[in-house]
Write a structure and sequence with these properties.
Blueprint: E1 9-10, H1 13-21, E2 25-32, E3 35-42, E4 44-46, E5 49-54, H2 59-64, E6 67-77, E7 82-94, H3 98-105, E8 119-124, E9 127-133, H4 136-141
Antiparallel strand pairs: 1-9, 2-3, 2-6, 4-5, 5-8, 6-7, 7-8, 7-9
């Protein structure tokens, strides 16, 4: 197990992808009027790509089209003092091709909010990194 300077386990790309598969909520970081913005989103993985659904006229749809974005998902247990965080960075693109929209609509991606969410954003995870916090007892045994 490889640890960083803070004692957190450094996760492999494969570990990061597996953890993302276990999550359904993440946060996308993008630029809105020259300022950083963060928005929670539902997502699914499609291979190594992160797929998000939103409304076509939304701020998120406008800001992420052909932009470099960051994406983060995590899970923590405060009582056990364990958890993980995975961050992806890469280009985001709006899906416009009808065949791809039809394919993506078959993915298990359901939004929590009302309204039309017919717009798909795909983030190519060019950089994928993560850390895991294990209990102190687990860390001593490793």
């Amino acid at each position: 197990m490889k640890l960083d300077s803070a004692g957190l386990e450094i996760l492999s790309r494969q570990d990061c992808a597996a953890l993302l598969l276990s999550a359904s909520i993440g946060r996308i970081v993008f630029t809105d009027r020259a300022l950083p913005a963060v928005q929670p989103v539902n997502f699914v993985l499609d291979g190594q790509d992160i797929v998000i659904r939103t409304a076509i006229g939304s701020k998120l749809a406008a800001a992420t089209s052909d932009a470099i974005v960051a994406f983060e998902a995590d899970e923590f247990d405060p009582a056990a003092r364990t958890g993980w965080s995975v961050t992806a960075v890469g280009p985001a693109r709006a899906v416009r091709e009808p065949g791809e929209i039809e394919r993506l609509s078959g993915l298990p991606l359901r939004t929590w909010t009302r309204g039309g969410h017919d717009h798909y954003i795909v983030v190519r995870a060019e950089q994928l990194s993560g850390r895991r916090l294990t209990s102190r007892d687990d860390a001593r045994e490793a």
